[in-house]
Amino acid sequence: MAGGFGGQLIWVHLPLDLEIATTSTVSTNAQRQAQALELIRGRLFAAAQRRAAGAGR
To answer: What is the pTM of this model?
Structure first.
């Protein structure tokens, strides 16, 4: 995972060949990055896992 100035976030998961990038408004509020990370690690990663499992059939 890498975070950039201005709300950019890149998350890479090599076993699924998965890269997710997010952006948000410039803010000193760390809550925005936490929300993006929660979305990535929750719903988006779960959807990628389901898709990968379906492709393996």
So the answer is: 0.65
